[in-house]
Amino acid sequence: MGNVPAALKHCLSYEQLTRDYPWLAAWLQREKVRGAFIFPADSRNAITDLPKFVKIVEVGPRDGLQNEKEIVPTDVKIQFIDLLSKTGLPAIEATSFVSSKWVPQMADHTDVLQGIHRAPQVKYPVLTPNLRGFRTAIAAGATEVAVFGSASETFSRKNINCSIEESMQRFEEVVRAAKELQIPVRGYVSCVLGCPYEGDIEPSKVTKVVKTLYGMGCYEISLGDTIGVGTPGSMARLLDSVKKEVPMSTLAVHCHDTYGQALANILVALQMGVSVVDSSVAGLGGCPYAKGASGNVSTEDVLYMLHGLGVETGVDLSKVMEAGDFICKALNRKTNSKVAQAKCRL
Amino acid sequence: MILQCRNTNSNTGTQETHRKRSVQQRPLRLAVIGCGRRIVFVAVSSVNPLPKQVKIVEVGPRDGLQNEKLTVPTEVKLQFIDMLSETGLPVIEATSFVSPKWIPQMADQAEVTQGIRKRPGVVYPVLAPNLKGFQAAVKAGADEVAIFSTVSELFAMKNANCSVEESLQRAEEVTRAAKAAGVRVRGYVSCVLGCPYEGHVSPDKVAQMAKHIYAMGCYEISLGDTIGVGTPGSMRAMLDAVSKEVPVDRLAVHCHDTYGQALANILVALQMGVSVVDSSVAGLGGCPYAPGASGNVATEDLVYMLHGLGIHTGVDLQKVMDAGAFICRFLNRRTSSKVAQASCRL
């Protein structure tokens, strides 16, 4: 380690160091280092210098089922969520208060929310695209909500029938109402690494939307690679941009596995300080933009990777596989999780 | 005030490896920054920068087809390999000179070796498990061979019907004969991150085996996660150990995707300086130890990730997908590549 005594070593985060020494970022840039890491002894720690704990947000019952063709009866949804509640998952997205005209799978949103056995310490956020949906959600007993924005203008218009700016105005109403009732709001940004209509999306566009949602009052912003086109390269560039405006601790990644890149993208996000990951048990939910292709990353595969890295999640993998097995039987489909496929020895 | 001290990388200190070292292997530079009373360390050469170029070793025609149930006629194999030869892949493992009693799929080894239209600049290694196989390979015109080793006694017994020591003796005979004939030898180590019979495998054992076959004369050592149980954590630990014994630019990774971890494991390997990756078009070749589960990582998914990272491979992804579509049509099976699934919009 050269001739500098260990006593002089001082371990700081990169963000803090560049705040204390503003010239440092430019100096490191000149040294052609992409993302310098500060660490005391072993440089190799940077590769697996990961958060000690990662929070998994389970989106199977909402994002997963929403994209499945077969309509799942309410009692099956409730049983499914109840199984997930026993796994240790800290957050389970239960349903969506959108118009059943647009998303028939979520027509039973009130019945589902009122029917589930809520485990203590587990959060059950629900989607509320507008004030009306928010009010219905609160009446049904919701204690946390989520709003969905997009980094792509075209996707916003096609998906929620309004511009990004108009959608932000709707969300502002929801957040204001939620604040009054002390209901936390999670923000989603879709198409962060690519759009099915616009193609590549500039990180600066994503950053702008993230900053707006954060400024409004969202406690967490989930960055969605909606069509799964991202790679570790584009993920790193995106996070490099976003972290300049919002703390890394408020960010989550929501990676789709359509091109098989999800776990690698998640790994890079973790290496850069993200500690919240969205996933869907059994990899439920295909990609509506590429028929036959996969969609959400499987919770089981994410857990396998995190546990193999020594990262704590509080989640029991075998119980998640049971829940996955249950819902796949109900949907009469094969699991998308490779871990489940390998362990079942089908 | 900035002092710079150089710290030699713990990998190796030889002149040869210094010369060929890629960016991420240069010695760790530690800048000691003093400002007022605070002195901090900033590491300015991290292991995170990736190789500019990665060599892909295509194992579909051998490792892939070997594990497919349907026996493929010789002319189809030849057409398949000829298509792969047009993709830019620099290395295509053509066949295996094992006894057809054990691997009927490879019974036409001589006809395949003699029948392929070898493209200039492309290497076509063949497996040669023993001296007899080597002699038959050379007679058939092979100019590069590969030998297989394992650290697991049980795996050696079940897979090659001999002990680890016996398999090494056979390998030694092959490498000696190959040296005499001016034929290059690639070495494989299997079960590097776990064994289907023995479970956990010690990184130090893998390192000693890699060192042994490197010393025998293998120009490259491919480290195989044979049952795909590895995670970025175990990959890192294993490469940490192996790279102390063998220069990292002589190492390749051969990851199976049985638990969905392959691309994340490959990413970590790249971050640690590995720049040779084995893969199989369409993810051909299941896992004989977990029926129904996937096996080799798909070349298409690997190329997609590498190109997204700005890494040069020389490979045309579309042509690889065409070769994948061709062989899957013949095998009457769906591709295991997610990129191919998404792109085909099946």
Largest β sheet strand count, sense and barrel closure of chain A: 9 strands, parallel
How much is the average pLDDT of chain A? 88
**Largest sheet report of chain B:** 9 strands, parallel
- Strand element count of chain A: 9
Structural class of the helices, strands and pairings of chain A?
A: alpha/beta
* Proportion of residues in helical segments of chain B: 25-40%
Our count of helices of chain A gives 14
Termini separation of chain A comes to: 52 Å
What fraction of residues of chain A sit in β-strands? 5-15%
Instruction: Estimate the helix proportion of chain A, in percent.
Output: 40-55%
C-alpha end-to-end distance of chain B: 61 Å
What structural class do the secondary elements of chain B suggest?
alpha/beta
Family (chain B): Belongs to the HMG-CoA lyase family.
Enzyme class (chain B): lyase
Protein name (chain B): hydroxymethylglutaryl-CoA lyase
Keywords (chain B): Lyase, Metal-binding
Q: How is this structure best described in words?
A:
Chain A has helices at 14-20, 23-30, 60-66, 74-85, 109-115, 131-139, 153-160, 164-180, 203-216, 232-242, 262-271, 299-308, 317-331, 338-344, and strands at 55-58, 91-92, 95-96, 126-127, 145-150, 185-190, 220-225, 251-255, 276-279. Chain A has 346 residues and is of the alpha/beta class. In chain A, helix 9 (203-216) links the parallel strand 6 and strand 7 (220-225). In chain A, helix 8 runs parallel beside helix 9 (203-216), helix 9 packs across helix 10 and helix 10 packs parallel to helix 11. The longest helix of chain A has 17 residues, at 164-180. By secondary structure, chain B is an alpha/beta fold. Helix content of chain B is 39%, strand content 17%. In chain B, the strands form two sheets. In chain B, strands 5-4-12-11-10-9-8-7-6 form a nine-stranded parallel β-sheet, sandwiched between helices. A three-stranded antiparallel β-sheet of chain B has the order 1-2-3, with no helix packed on it. The longest helix of chain B has 18 residues, at 164-181. Residues 1-33 and 39-47 of chain B have low confidence and may be disordered. Classes of the chains: A alpha/beta (346), B alpha/beta (346). At the A-B interface, helix 10, helix 11, helix 12 and helix 14 of A face strand 1, strand 2, strand 3, helix 9 and helix 10 of B. Chain B: Belongs to the HMG-CoA lyase family. Chain B: One of its GO terms (molecular function) is hydroxymethylglutaryl-CoA lyase activity. Chain B: Pfam families: HMGL-like (PF00682). Chain B: It is an enzyme of class 4 (lyase). Chain B: This is hydroxymethylglutaryl-CoA lyase.
